[in-house]
Specification:
The chain is α+β, with helices and mostly antiparallel strands. It contains 5 helices and 4 strands. The protein is globular and about 50 Å long.
Length: 140
């Protein structure tokens, strides 16, 4: 079975913090949606009728955007995926997001906000797999 990645592990979070990134950080999100959202882990958030993973992710985004903006973050780019021009032919990503946050500290505060965490069940229900890559802008 191929390993899936839906949340960071403690070692990855520690390594991210230890990078001591100064200034803004841009998070590259690669997203693969489930055909049908799986609310097993968050039945209290489940809609009355089954919905697609993409629709569940949209519920997650609607919940998240106000907190992202109030934390100083912004969506820089959101787009649909497709076949690679260069890359493995058996791998697909349905969507991609670039999220800019003012600093590592602001990102950690946002990601650990209890109000934000209340909507995480939509994300978990939506995704079959994901990647999150912190990027630092080159200056000069």
């Amino acid at each position: 079975m191929v390993e899936k990645y839906l949340a960071p592990n403690q070692e990855a979070v520690k390594d991210f913090i230890m990078r001591k990134i100064e200034g803004p950080v841009v998070m590259l999100n690669l997203l693969r949606f489930r055909d049908v959202a799986d609310y097993t882990e968050a039945p209290h958030l489940a809609p009355e009728q089954p919905i697609s993973g993409a629709a569940a992710y949209e519920l997650y985004i609607q919940h998240t955007l106000p907190m992202l903006h109030s934390s100083g973050g912004e969506v820089v780019f959101s787009g649909k995926g497709g076949a690679y021009l260069i890359g493995p032919t058996d791998e697909r990503w349905d969507a991609m997001l670039l999220i800019r946050q003012e600093s590592t500290e602001r990102f950690i505060a946002f990601a650990s906000d209890p109000e934000y965490l209340k909507g995480m069940g939509h994300r978990t229900a939506a995704l079959e797999d994901s990647r999150l890559l912190p990027l630092i802008e080159n200056i000069g």
